[in-house]
Amino acid sequence: MALEITIDRDLCMGSGNCSFWAPGVFDLDDDGVAVVVDAGALGAGLESEGKVILAAQGCPTQAISIVQDGVKVV
Ligand code: SF4
Fold this sequence. Notes:
This protein has one domain: Alpha-Beta Plaits (2-Layer Sandwich). The chain is 24% helix and 24% strand. The protein contains 3 helices and 5 strands. The two termini are 16 Å apart.
């Protein structure tokens, strides 16, 4: 089942860690705040779930939440 990815833009400090680890899914917008650019990149196999979870775990402000099969994993 697809991961549900949520970014708390108020918590994001724009470090870019997430877009480094999973550039197909995360990017920084013009304000330097992270956005999910293509959650479908997971389904298309362009990014692995492991990399997206690593990206979320590596967020210095814990701004990224991931829910898998209804269970919060990050
Ligand atoms: S890793 Fe966290 S703080 Fe850094 S850009 Fe991504 S969401 Fe923002």
